[in-house]
Fold Nitroreductase.
Amino acid sequence: MAGEDNEIIRNIKARRSVRNYLDRPVSEESVKAIIDAGIYAPTGFGSEPWFFVVVQNKEMMKRMSDYCKPKLLAQLQDIPNDNVTDFKKQLSHEDFDVFYGAPILVIVLGSNAGFTTDYDCAMCAQNMMLAATSLGIGSCWVGTACFIQDNVEFMSELGIPYDYRVIAPIVFGYEGKAAGRSPRKEPRAVWIR
């Protein structure tokens, strides 16, 4: 297939959502490189609407995890999907960590004033996850953590400006026990020639 020998395409295909991390810190230099890659994402009208919060404090991450689990569980109650059922069981366990034991959480926040903020920050997040993969660092976008947006105490502790919202909470770290990657379906596409 075309592109198989292309380093960028190989990196894109190597990226996966890691849900098991070693108790090993990620260097500040690596985190800065990952965030720097993020800010090269395209933005509507050149707005660059992002703001980043880096959390390494395990106690704070545990409090956030404990706060978010019941919120998500309540939202998932009526969804009959098998994958959701398994995840609901995990969320029900007191010791389950929505951050999967990762040493670092980077929260990508977006300005409420931006017209294309959600898209811009999602592209920034993807750049960050690809950069992490290229550095041998695992990542996972943890949507569950978006519930911290509803908690004034967390928003204040994290120093999040009042005019920003949580878009992409992403954990980073070195992968522990590797899990296989789910195969991808063939893309559905219509060609107009």
